Amino acid sequence: MNEPYSPTAPRPMSSTSPSTMKMFMCFLTVFIVAQTIGTVLFCLYLHMKMDKMEEALSLNEDYVFLRKVQKCQTAEGQKSTLLDCDKILRGFQDLQCKDGGASKERPKFEMQKGHEHSHSKGKNETAVAAERRQPIAAHLAGAKSSKAVSVLEWRTTGYAPMNSLISYQDGKLKVEKAGLYYIYSQVSFCTNAKASAPFTLYIYLYLPMEDDRLLLKGLDTHSTSRAVCDFQSIREGGVFELREGDMVFVNVTDSTLVNYSPGSTYFGIFKL
Questions:
Q1: Is 89 part of a structural domain of the chain?
Q2: Which residue intervals are annotated with compositional bias (Basic and acidic residues) in the record (predicted)?
């Protein structure tokens, strides 16, 4: 017996809910945005990290170079065959010349740690600014001594300049900065016709390891007046190139004849 043919009914197509599709698209969008932001932040972090690593490597190279310079200054380092001390020191001198200008003297090496170097650099900049505001100069008045002295003594006054880059020690003026200086002095003295030798004023450059160097010399013959004391004066000055730490002083043939009245005897120096 033949059964009647009935075609199979098509299955109904499953339809996705619009709300589910919308949520999926929102999630996908948020994921893509978060992924993009994370990638950008990671790139920024990586870039900053690389900059710090380059800076650390640069500082490490500078530190190693300074350690080599410091070692080359010792007797042990100069004997070492692993270091080319001549080349290292020459390179360090070239760096100093580029940084501070050419110097006629051999630069003095001073090794410092990183933070100390920055601190000293700030101090140097402050000192330069102060120097621009205040000239480097000193003016002293004669200080009377009860006995004959080989180096005339001086004292500061309230109206005269005294810069911190010029110091006074035992009758001598010491400069703390190299350069051209004008040095001057006037000495008034009491004389009479009985004295035979002329009264002489000297300005010397003090050299502790050798004979002092004469910079200026002035002399005056004694007065022919019959007075017990006839006042006269000698003044001299000149421009000289001084190094850091140089000291100058004044001397006369007979310090007991010097007149110390205000404004008559003085000693000074100023940087050009």
A1: yes
A2: 101-126
